[in-house]
Write a structure and sequence with these properties.
This protein is mostly beta strands. 0% of the residues lie in helices and 45% in strands.
Length: 127
């Protein structure tokens, strides 16, 4: 059974940083697009960032562009989301998701593109 496990969430002050991690077993991330989504209370789940497979590109929501960086470490089979200059509106549960297919593209921004999901990790930005 495929498992995606997120970690690294927590409470941080506005302007601070966090790094989220997503590890998978037994599937491997290397050739697959992997994305981060988030869901705030009483809001729809939204796309945050994605990284393509096999050295492919990255994609970001406009709201996080320039502040968040998504990366993949194939040796550790882990995807990261580095979040800087955090704002209160970034408060949400963050989910890692992976496709069931291989692609170098990171253009998959719909939750329907992703077959496998983690359980989520809470990020709270507050003073």
């Amino acid at each position: 059974q495929v498992q995606l496990v997120e970690s690294g969430g927590g409470l941080v002050q506005p302007g601070g940083s966090l790094r989220l991690s997503c590890a998978a077993s037994p599937l491997t991330f290397s050739s697959r697009p992997v994305a981060w989504f988030r869901q705030a209370p009483r809001k729809e789940r939204e796309f945050v960032a994605a990284v393509g497979g096999s050295g492919g590109g990255t994609a970001y929501a406009d709201s996080v562009k320039g502040r968040f960086t998504v990366s993949k470490d194939n040796a550790k089979n882990t995807v990261y989301l580095q979040m800087n200059s955090l704002k209160p509106e970034d408060t949400a549960v963050y989910y890692c998701a992976c496709t069931s297919f291989s692609s170098t593209y990171a253009r998959y921004t719909s939750s329907r593109d992703y077959a496998y999901w983690g359980q989520g990790t809470q990020v709270t930005v507050s003073s």
